[in-house]
Each structure stands twice: as structure tokens, then as C-alpha cells.
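Quick log. Single chain, no ligands specified.
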Amino acid sequence: MRHERISHVIGSLVCLSALLYFTSANEYGSKYQTMQPRIEVFEYYQVDELPRYGDSLSAFNTNLYNLLKWPNLWHGEGDVVLSFIVTQKGTIEHIRVEKGLCDQCDINAIDALAQLENWKPGVKNGKLVATRMYARVRFAIR
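-> predicted structure:
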């Protein structure tokens, strides 16, 4: 009787662990967590000042494309659209693919964006706030 209870509890814990893992990680594995943030997040159009990387939009684009790796087996063109949150501390969290292209393109776009650090956070009513942003990453043969 006691062994049945113990194995039932262990089985329940294993199922719960698996459930938590699979609901917190997207198709790219546990490296990119997609759990919902526990802080109040404003959309980019709700803030008074948008988050900023570097001095300008061109700094963002230049650094993003310098970090981007071209997929080995990709010979087409298209866009990957990512959403992400710039926190009050200026870090990026909760990167998510909104529109994918191919698995390798999606992963490379996420990896490049995740390396961009030291953002200036968004501002709402004079306070630093977490802000959801979107980025389009273009893969094109030139």
C-alpha cells in the first residue's frame, strides 16, 4: 500500500514536471522561455517614449544584422517577425516568433536579437516601464 502511494506521488511529480517544461518552452527548446511575464507590460503604442537601442534606429539595425547568421540550407527570401519585451532595466526578455520563415532563420533571428543588450527602457508618465516591441528581420539574397 505504501509503495503504491509513493509511486503514485512520484508519477504525479514527473507528469507535473513534464507539463511545466512543455508549457514554458517553445518549439526551440528551453533556451527561449515563453512564459508570460509577471510584470505589467505596455505595448509600444502605449508609452510616451519608446525603448531605444543605441543612439538611433540605424544602430539597432546595424548591430542586429552584424550578429545575424545566414542559415546553411536557406536559399530564399522573407521576414521573421519577433516580439520581445524591453524591461525597466533595459534588458530583453520573452522573445517570441510572431511570423516565422524557417526553423533555422527563426532561431538565428532570436539569437541575434538576444545579444543586443543595454537598451534604454520605455517611459510612461515619467516612469521606466517594460514595453513590448516588434522587430522584422529580413533574410534576402543580394
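Residues 2-24 form the longest helix (23 residues).
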